[in-house]
Amino acid sequence: MRESVQAEVMMSFLVSEELSFRIPVELRYETCDPYAVRLTFHLPGDAPVTWAFGRELLIDGVGRPCGEGDVRVSPVEPESLGDVLIRLQVGSDQALFRSSTAPLVAFLDRTDKLVPLGQEGTLADFDAHLDEALDRILAEEQSAG
After folding, report:
1. What stretch of H or E contains 89?
2. 9-37 burial by CB neighbour count: b if 16+ within 10 A, else e?
3. Tens digit of pLDDT for each residue in 65-114?
């Protein structure tokens, strides 16, 4: 059975030091992919853009700077739980978002009630989908090689 947790959070899209605007961001967590959260950004004039990354990265990033590479999450002020910065990067292009911590923590709390942190691997559906995906990848590699 597919279960999910969803929330809409208003975030500031920081274009530059002088320019930012508030946009709705959908947060989604699904038991069929229990290690990931998805953030869908609705930028004005563009089609929605979805990023998926580790739920644990978002959990850790609320309290301390986390992430390497394409996704980084960090509190604005490490001593307080006021706001969080989420930086997404592809090559030299990057987008920076600022969110209040409270709605992120509320969303993460709901994901933990659905699938407690550390219990992701106990979901039979996830293991079955992972096995199917690995079998398909191996078969494609063998037929190509």
Report:
1. strand 83-90
2. bebbbbeeeeeeeeeebebbbbbebbbbb
3. 999 889 999 999 877 778 999 999 988 888 899 999 999 999 999 999 99
